[in-house]
Amino acid sequence: MYGENAFHFIRSSQTRGTYFEAEWREIGWKDIRRFLEDIGPVNISMLKYVSFQLTDAAPSVTPYLEEEQRRCTNDPVLHRVFRLIGSHATLNKLAMGFGVRRNIDSSDYIFLKSLASMKCHNFKQSERWWNVRRMGFGVMDRLQKVMVIKEEFDDDVDLSKKVLEPDMAMI
To answer: How far is 102 from 130, CA to CA, in rounded Å?
Structure first.
């Protein structure tokens, strides 16, 4: 199931709480973290196709948070999601969409470190208009260098330039 399906993860802006709580809290990335923790490391290692649509929390749903706390780059639950996938899986394809209010740059160190823990063979950034230029100058290029690994069967050998040794049986 996990290796043959694609998983698309987005922030949940729904709120949840108990009857006795005066203020219910946004779900955010908590259900995704719970899903990954529930399926465990063996099943996480089977994941092959994963995509994320990263968005910041909306002020209308999270009035209890300051502006910087609403940024997905400062969300420890999202960092944990990245590290769970990164420590157990090498994905065939990872796609990312960035619908954030402020550009992600090298000062978002903890976010970038947890994001870079994920490894994949193919990385794709969404090219929709609101995703363009959401990563600071050079950040996406550096991330791709760290995250993308060659597949085992990739071979960079140019056979036309290979020097063949003479067959000893023919001599």
So the answer is: 11
What is residue 83's three-state secondary structure?
helix
**How far from 122 is each of 91, 100, 141, 146, CA to CA, in Å?**
8, 23, 13, 12
CA distances from 154 to 78, 151, 158 (A): 32, 5, 12
pLDDT at site 154: 53
The Cα 51–Cα 164 span in angstroms is 44
Q: What is the pTM of this model?
A: 0.81
Q: CB-hemisphere CA count at 13 Å for 21? A: 7
As a whole number of angstroms, the distance between CA 169 and CA 171 comes to: 6
pLDDT band at residue 86 under the 50/70/90 scheme: very high
